TrEMBL record:
It comes from the Bacteria. This is GatB/YqeY domain-containing protein. GO terms for molecular function: carbon-nitrogen ligase activity, with glutamine as amido-N-donor.
């Protein structure tokens, strides 16, 4: 079952339950997927859908950080609720231990030895963690491993 179909079913459920927050987030996700579909002019693959969901999650995490810095508790709570809803549609995220194992393997593969090889390592790691790990966490672990 495609992600759009799942979103449509969940949207009906949210409408029946009169759950406005969930409905709003699902509509935003659905709009992002449909916009991308229109832009590319073809059906989206699972990988492309995952990329769009990851982008939506990143936007919300970035917003959350900004709202916390600005002491906007009202928006922090709203954004945290949105993140919980978006997480339902993303695959299970990797733990830090799993990410470290992937990073260690990538460092050995590209024969990285210093921070100069950061780009090579990230280039090897990101395709393996796409959609299943937060890029900021991966970035931090790669930096820790190389320094």
């Amino acid at each position: 079952m495609s992600l759009l179909t799942t979103l449509n079913e969940d949207m009906k459920t949210a409408m029946k339950a009169k759950d406005k927050e969930t409905l709003t987030v699902i509509r935003m996700l659905k709009a992002s997927l449909q916009n991308e579909q229109i832009k590319t002019g073809k059906e989206l693959s699972e990988d492309e859908e995952l990329t769009i969901l990851a982008r939506e999650m990143k936007q919300r995490r970035d917003s959350l950080a900004e709202f916390k810095n600005a002491d906007r508790e009202d928006l922090v709570e709203k954004t945290q609720a949105e993140i919980v809803i978006v997480e339902k549609y993303l695959p299970k995220q990797l733990s830090e231990t799993e990410i470290k194992a992937i990073v260690t393997e990538a460092i050995a593969t590209v024969e990285a030895s210093s921070m100069k090889d950061f780009g090579k390592v990230m280039g090897a790691v990101m395709p393996k963690t796409k959609g299943i790990a937060d890029g900021n966490v991966v970035n931090r672990i790669v930096k820790e491993s190389l320094s």
